[in-house]
Amino acid sequence: MSTDALLLRNLPNFSLEATRRVVATRYGLEGTYGQLASERDLSWRIERTDGRDVVVKISNVSEPEGVVDMQVKALNHTFERDPDLPVPRVVPSLAGAAYEWIEDERGSRHMVRVLTFLSGKVMEQVEEAFSAGTRFNIGAMVGRLAYALRDFFHPYADSNVHLWDISRALVLRPQIAKISDAGLRQLCNEIFERAERFTLPQLSKTRRQVVHQDSHGGNILVDPRNSTLPVGIIDFGDMGYNSIVADIVTASETFSKHDDDPIAYLCDVTSGFDSTYPLEENEIDLIFDAMLLRLAMATVIVEAREATDESGIPHIENASHYPRMMELLSRQGRAQAVRRLRQACRFPVYGATSTEGERLADDYDALRREREAHLGPIWHFYNKPLHITRAAGAWMYAADGTAYLDVYNNVPQIGHCHPHVAKAIYRQASALNTNTRYMCDVAVEYAARLTADLPGHLDTCIFVNSGSEANDLAMQIAMSLSRHDGGLIIDQAYHGCTEFTTALSNESWRHLPAEEHPKRIETLMAPDMYRGPFASDPQAAAKYAADADRAIATLSERGHRPAAFMVDTALCSSGVLRAPENYFNLVAEKVRSAGGFVIADEVQAGCGRMGTFWGFRANGLKDDNVDFITMGKPVGNGHPLGVVILSSALMKRFLNGTYPLLFSTFGGNTVACAAGMAVLDIIERESLVRRSAETGEYLRHELRRLAERYEIIGDIRGRGMMTGVELVTDRLTKEPAIQQTGRLVEDMLARNILVGKGTPNTLKLRPPLIWSGNEVDIFVSAFEGSLGSQQ
């Protein structure tokens, strides 16, 4: 059917008396008739004496039977899926049929059907209904309807051809010429041109199903006593197969003469829809474009009909709001609309670049000022802080769309935003999020799974929220059970940001005068096999470990004894050092002989990072020499989760002693444990421990190849996906290349590679375990370019 033909409504030609006879004969219904406004059908309300009013609809002569059959079956399907949803119910004829065939005086055949009447006031006729609350509730109800129809199928779903179908918008393009106003005509042309190039192709990639796509204010009923409450959706005549976005924009098109912010209207309806039928990324970002197209279509249809023989037949009240709101929406712009829509539905607001090359980013300088005003002068990685808005796998993306290869952030162990972890968090949060005072299977299952390959004396988990908390608690337990109050750490260690773990992190205070160092903490010489005093000594392990004797004696002189030796076995903050064989065991034995415990800080070394699941094993620390394991950061792939692992015997002693009511409100909450379980799933399914060992060796092999050409590379060390690259100005003197290291970090940033420092002259490389040789090659190529630029 041509567009010109569709513009002519050809309303059925049945008189009131003829309609009465048909309804009485076919349905046995009588009452007082009142005609209803309708675009293509003839519709009457019958007020019955028993109060059970109905609506009679006589279909347009050109209406295919399959389309009516689809509408009838869609209503029945909706009732089955959501019985409380206020939509009309089908009233069968006396013969039990959902619709009957009748003829008019000219012999043309029409379908007649009867539906229950829904009471309420038409929304667009109630001034009080033009409110944010009403709009949200309308969106929620339309979302419920779309959700109920998500599994409905009918062979005629794509055959209901009419002018208002947004997927067929381009058929209206020739009608734009009938718009009298030149500016309006140009704007419609621009919107239709963009629709062909962008909007319609993108809409075809959204979720498509049977949708109502006519839920504007003329087809929404509100409660006369509470205008914010929608009580009905009527008129399923435009129903068809389309994007669910079509339902949102249709429900957002009814503006009042007082409305001057169409984005606000869109946000209210969209957030309501999202509350009952959650939207996806590509859908939320298309709503602005689809709304503009809907308004342009309405403008064209209204103007084109004015040029037909049916121009005098009333159908749309106050149609002038279409061009007005189209112009307003266009002026407000896509960037603002997308941002506000995302905020309304709590999608992360990011400033991506559209496929059209249009910048949607926030003003960087304004954001930086706001950050400093509300968050203070937070330390950041680079001279100019990055505005990162999203991440996936091994990559992070800035607001301007720039992709950065992440070689530094060790928190997302299995890659940023892993879908399996995100799904596990969502599903558990949707079911239950509570603490360990309740019996919850996921926490028990996670603890059992996490400790499954550990020795018998490491069989009990205490869950907290971070690595800092885990280290703090492990030290508290060690102090309580040993009755000692001292601690031993490795030089340049970092173990957390609580008051206690800051004292255990001389990275935080080693620069201060000696008198300001914590008196109950003593620092051991780092077992540096590159530039340390015993670097080339065959007895290096014993000689470095001997410093523990000195440290224990020094503590004793100050009146303290070691409660524990806390060690990150990756020696990450010390420059990713590779300790000599058996060093950790020798120190552990000395500490245990002095009555202290050994705490293996696995926050950075564990969870597969070192080519084995447990970092202490990668570095030769025997199971029997470990009393506590602490975990954080990667264990939940960024979700707040920390773990202390110890023996059940120590746990019982601790609880029977100083801390009988050990409890963390959020520690071990069900969502955090679900995230932890999902991380273990991926590590196992994708063989990430083995892959990290293999990929890490390939990375170091390639770096050693570069070291043959660039003398600034003094040493390359590490295990698994933890690598340190120490840079020097002279390989003989091993003078630290501090300034050059800083420049390299910034130069790598300019090459879209994120790296960080372990010490002022050591690059610390901690990519996610999901890396392959391809990411290694990208990094090495960029690194080679940076090294070359420094010469």
Description of the structure:
- With 791 residues, this protein is an alpha+beta fold.
- The protein has four domains: 117 residues, 2-Layer Sandwich (Phosphorylase Kinase, domain 1), CATH 3.30.200.20; 237 residues, Alpha-Beta Complex (Aminoglycoside 3'-phosphotransferase, Chain: A, domain 2), CATH 3.90.1200.10; 155 residues, Aspartate Aminotransferase, domain 1; 165 residues, Aspartate Aminotransferase, domain 2, CATH 3.40.640.10.
- Helices cover 39% and strands 16% of the residues.
- It contains 24 helices and 27 strands.
- The strands form six sheets. It has a seven-stranded mixed beta sheet, sandwiched between helices. Strands 1, 2, 3, 4, 5 and 6 form a six-stranded antiparallel beta sheet that branches.
- A hairpin with a 2-residue loop joins strand 22 and strand 23.
- The protein is elongated and about 110 Å long.
Summarize the structure.
The protein has 791 residues and is of the alpha+beta class. 39% of the residues lie in helices and 16% in strands.
Key features?
791 residues; Aminoglycoside 3'-phosphotransferase, Chain: A, domain 2; Phosphorylase Kinase, domain 1; Aspartate Aminotransferase, domain 1; seven-stranded mixed β-sheet; 4 domains; single chain; six-stranded antiparallel β-sheet; alpha+beta
